[in-house]
Give the backbone structure.
Amino acid sequence: MASKQEKRRRAALVEAMVAEDTKEAIENMPLSLAVLGELFDYLDETLEQEGCDHSPRATQLFLSQKGLDPNQVLPWLEEQGGNCDCEILANVEESWESEISKNT
Ligand SMILES: [Zn+2]
C-alpha cells in the first residue's frame, strides 16, 4: 500500500497535470472565457423564452453578434457534447463553469 507521503506526492502530481491541461485548453479555446460566460448567460435567457429547436441557432446568432466565426466555435462546442443550444448549456457550461468564475 502506498504511504501517506507517496499518496500526497501523487495527488500533487495529478493536480499539476490537470492545471497544465486546463491552461492549455484555455489557450486553445476559439473564444475567451469571458465571452463563453456571456454565451451561457445568453443561452440561459433565450432557451427559457424560446426553448431549443435542436440546432445551435441561438449560439450562432450570439457568435455573429460578437464577430466570432461559428465555423471555428461550433465544432469546438460539438467536441464537448454541445450539438445544439440546450446541449451547449447542459454539457459545455458544466466543464467551464469553475474556470469562468475563477478567471473573470
Ligand atoms: Zn437542444
Observations:
- Residues 4-27 form the longest helix (24 residues).
- Residues 19 and 25 are 10 Å apart (CA to CA).
